[in-house]
Design brief:
This protein is of the alpha+beta class and 615 residues long. It is 16% helix and 28% strand. The strands form nine sheets. An eight-stranded parallel barrel has the order 4-5-6-7-8-9-10-12, surrounded by four helices. Strands 17-28-18-24-21-22 form a six-stranded antiparallel β-sheet, with no helix packed on it. The protein has a five-stranded antiparallel β-sheet with strand order 16-29-34-31-32, with no helix packed on it. A hairpin with a 2-residue loop joins strand 21 and strand 22. Helix 8 packs parallel to helix 9. It is globular.
Length: 615
């Protein structure tokens, strides 16, 4: 799949993605980035790309500018970002590019800060993001095949790429913007070999208006998922640069050479340790790469937070592994945007190896701690169930037009029976109740799908299932529907005739709360509190979830994310811009805890008490 230098050099309007440019300000309109003699070229001069990944959806909009200034101060000349289809088209045909989803404004702000942009529109993006950025509603059709030429996937994907082009194609470099490259799909070599599919995605990107930028593919697989005439960049983690660049030289003998994702940290799974990568090791390898003249994109420069329900999951070693809410990633900028020793080490190397005079590092604001947030108002889930849908077999969330949250399956028992209750294909975490009393828990992570029960005629059997995040990588994502996907049986005999209660938790603040402790979990809790500081980064804090079990947290209408006592993450990032001086409203859903918990916030996060290196 390698190509000669002449072929690469001919790609004037198609080619490179993860490619930033060493320049103080983005070039003017009419000067697209090209490739000549194995180098990136802009305005007639060779450019080395020193880029960093940062995702607009993982950073509060109010902080975009501050994070971009930090990128320039570290020595970056480019920002790379995915675009998350499922964030923009939560329901079919309804597109949202407002507020937090205003990716065009994010790109414009990057330009104003002197940064180019590499755009990664997918439509599949991986990124430890729910279903790799694909909308859950695609899975409503049981026959759809994701990431294929299946019209049930390709038609909505093409519509999405065209709609995205309306927003972002005018921001390409040759049209006066700062987008220098656009990626075609994402790490397809780790998924499949269908070049017809890749060609259709490439055509959708070009027809969507991205015909004035270099195109690229990125991969970490043994063989890249690429196309003729499209530049390849390679992805790898700390400690692997020499051998990975040797591989890239075989893929693409004529150059240019770039690591599209230099994994300088790693992500965490619930129930597993927190990952770290030493700053010195990163700095030494970065120095080596820059000395070779290679271009680099840090993944992540600033990870941020997978707010809401947007964490993804992996399937490794035949195990389901849901990701935590924090996407700190042990990045140069931590989850709250504050520089780390890794930031300072990378900045020193970039300044030395590029000879560029860097702007000063912006001052870092402090954080705050708040005590005594008493969850004194409560509402039991059981008292606030919606109308159910009847079915012979349990229904999946997607079949009920539900993307996230929980789903409750209820059945009235017809005759006395005892023995083994089995759930076939549980996705992902179930609590089993008989007449409202919890008798057991089943967890997909632990391959649990059965437990002993004793049922009597007239009993009510409830199976409350929580979606812990859809798999975002590999073939397992093809069938990553949520809820109960198979039969429920008792002693091998199917249990039929179910009531399905869809629980997306769209507006938990509106429930009828009582000023009393909750006595029947799962419970919604609500608290009102004042904040000593508010409205800016100096008010940032971290909600300590010690004392909670498993659930979800909202603050002033913002979905902060998941909690789970198994760790490693114990604190949820609370952006100060989402706080008010008075009457802040905290809402907590907890599947396990009863009473009236009292919470507090900390000045520093707790992301894991035990740490391990990158895998």
């Amino acid at each position: 799949m390698s190509r000669s230098r002449n072929v690469v050099a001919s790609m004037l309007l198609m080619g490179a993605l993860s490619c930033g440019i060493a320049s103080a300000e983005p070039a003017t309109a009419g000067q697209p980035m090209t490739i000549e003699k194995g180098h990136f070229v802009l305005d007639g001069k060779p450019f080395r790309i020193v880029s960093g990944e940062m995702h607009y959806a993982r950073v509060p909009r109010e902080y975009w500018r501050d994070r971009l200034k930090m990128a320039r101060a570290m020595g970056l000349n480019t920002i790379t970002t995915y675009v998350f289809w499922n964030a923009h088209e939560a329901t079919p045909g309804h597109y949202d590019f407002s507020g937090q989803n205003d990716v065009a404004e994010f790109i414009r702000e990057a330009k104003e800060e002197g940064l180019y942009v590499i755009l990664r529109p997918g439509p599949y993006v991986c990124s430890e993001w729910e279903l790799g950025g694909l909308p859950a509603w695609l899975l409503k059709d049981p026959d759809v095949k994701l990431r294929s030429t299946d019209p049930k996937f390709m038609q909505p994907a093409q519509r999405w790429l065209h709609r995205l082009g309306e927003e972002l194609a005018p921001l390409q470099l040759s049209r006066g913007g700062n987008i220098i490259a656009v990626q075609v799909e994402n790490e397809y070599g780790s998924f499949g070999t269908d070049t017809a599919y890749m060609e259709q995605i490439r055509r959708g990107i070009v027809d969507g208006g991205f015909n004035a930028s270099l195109l690229t593919t990125s991969d970490s697989a043994e063989q890249p998922g690429s196309l003729p005439g499209v530049l390849q960049v390679i992805n790898f983690g700390v400690g692997h640069a020499p051998q990975k660049f040797e591989k890239l030289h075989t893929w693409q003998p004529g150059g240019p050479y770039m690591v599209g994702e230099y994994w300088i940290g790693w992500f965490d799974h619930w129930g597993a340790p927190h990952h770290v990568a030493p700053a010195k090791k990163v700095a030494d390898e970065l120095s080596w790469m820059l000395k070779q003249g290679y271009s680099v994109n840090f993944y992540m420069f600033h990870g941020g937070t997978s707010f809401g329900w947007m964490n993804g999951a992996n399937w490794d070693d035949n195990n389901y592994q849901p990701d935590v809410t924090s996407y700190d990633y042990d990045s140069p900028l931590d989850e709250s945007g504050r520089p780390t020793p890794k930031y300072l080490a990378a900045r020193e190397v970039i300044a030395k190896e590029t000879g560029v005079s860097l702007p000063p590092v912006p001052a870092t604001p402090g954080t705050q701690a708040i005590d005594g947030i008493r969850l004194g108002e409560s509402a039991s889930l059981w008292d606030n169930l919606p109308a159910p849908v009847s079915s012979a077999e349990p229904r999946s969330m997607e079949s009920l037009d539900q993307a996230y949250g929980d789903i409750l399956y209820r059945k009235r028992i017809d005759a006395d029976a005892s023995g083994e209750l089995r759930i076939d294909t549980l996705h992902d975490y179930a609590q089993v109740y008989v007449n409202g009393k919890r008798i057991g828990t089943l967890d997909r992570r632990l391959k649990q799908d059965r437990l002993k029960v004793a049922l009597h005629k007239g009993d009510t059997l409830d199976l409350l299932v929580q979606n812990d995040g859809r798999i975002n990588f590999g073939e397992k994502m093809l069938n990553e529907r949520k809820g109960i996907l198979g039969a429920v049986s008792l002693n091998g005999q199917p249990l039929r005739d179910w009531q399905n209660y869809s629980l997306p938790f769209a507006n938990p603040a509106s429930l009828p709360y009582a000023s009393a402790a909750c006595k029947h979990a799962p419970c919604f809790y609500r608290a009102t509190f004042d904040a000593p500081a508010s409205g800016n980064a100096a008010a940032d804090t971290f909600l300590d979830t010690a004392g909670l079990g498993k659930g979800f947290v909202w603050l002033n209408g913002h979905a902060l994310g998941r909690t789970w006592r198994i760790g490693p993450q114990r604190t949820l990032y609370v952006p100060g811009v989402w706080l008010k001086p008075h009457d802040n409203q905290l809402v907590v859903l907890d599947l396990l805890v009863e009473g009236a918990p009292v919470l507090s916030t900390r000045k520093q996060p707790i992301l894991g008490t035990s740490t391990v290196g990158m895998p």
